[in-house]
Write a structure and sequence with these properties.
Elements (H helix, E strand, L loop, with lengths): L2 E3 L2 E3 L27 E7 L10 H7 L4 E5 L16 E5 L6 E2 H6 L8 E7 L2 H10 L8 E3 L21 H12 L2 H21 L36
Parallel strand pairs: 3-4, 3-7, 5-7, 5-8, 6-8
Antiparallel strand pairs: 1-2
């Protein structure tokens, strides 16, 4: 029987945590980092089964982060909540969104506790989250202050401001928390993307961020082995 992630079948040749082939596992980079900002991802159910999803990597990399699934058939959406003492903000470039740096500068004092709520899914799915999830229409909407080039080459973007979820989270935390956590998350992102591209024969070994693990094969593991050392993150 196949392992499952949040109700979805998982290829036994893939690590259950980073979702790379087991011989390309990047779980050594996913130690949860302690930050003041709380991350809440609001993910469409289809994202739970995609190895190209990057939102789960953000959750794995940040202490206190969690993922709330929506749109599950026959199951109520997981509630999107935050602590009463926390200031929630919704990260998405909707028409009413303010640049995140301007929003932060306009606060009378630096918020001690911010909950960063980020939709995770296709662009079309993400656009619906603010109006469909209870309570999100009433909190401030923010966007990244400028267009950053995306290094995500596993899915096709339709516009220059469309970043992968982990890229967007990294850029936002660079503003809220500083450059150290931003650089760490972007390194995780590029490592996972590059190893996937290498396994598909799309880039050379020398172009892979952090290099290729010893013994890894482009065509995947030799035999069906347990999905270790990664384990399911606590969400």
């Amino acid at each position: 029987m196949r392992n499952r992630i949040r109700g979805q079948a998982l290829d036994p040749l893939r690590c259950r945590r980073c979702r790379l082939h087991t011989d390309l596992c990047a779980c050594d980079l996913l130690a949860p980092q302690a930050i003041a900002t709380r991350l809440v991802l609001v993910a469409h159910r289809f994202e739970g089964r995609k190895p190209t999803n990057t939102g789960h990597l953000a959750v794995a990399c940040l202490q206190g982060a969690r993922m709330c699934l929506r749109g599950q058939l026959g199951v109520a959406d997981e509630p999107v909540t935050w602590e009463p003492t926390s200031q929630p903000i919704f990260l998405f470039p909707c028409p009413e969104a303010r640049p995140l740096d301007e929003w932060l500068a306009a606060q009378p004092r630096a918020p001690r506790d911010v909950t960063l709520i980020v939709p995770d899914g296709t662009w079309r799915q993400a656009k619906r989250v603010r109006r469909r999830v209870t309570g999100l229409a009433d909190i401030p909407a923010v966007r990244l202050p400028s267009i950053f080039p995306s290094h995500y080459r596993l899915r096709r973007a339709h516009a220059g401001d469309q970043l992968a979820t982990l890229e967007a989270v990294a850029r936002a935390l660079g503003i809220l928390e500083g450059p150290t956590i931003e650089a760490h998350l972007l390194r995780v992102f590029r490592t996972v993307v590059d190893r996937t591209l290498w396994s598909n024969g799309r880039i050379a070994s020398a172009d892979v961020t952090g290099g290729i693990p010893v013994g890894a094969r482009r065509d995947g593991p030799v035999k069906r082995q347990p999905a270790e050392p990664g384990t399911l993150p606590t969400l």
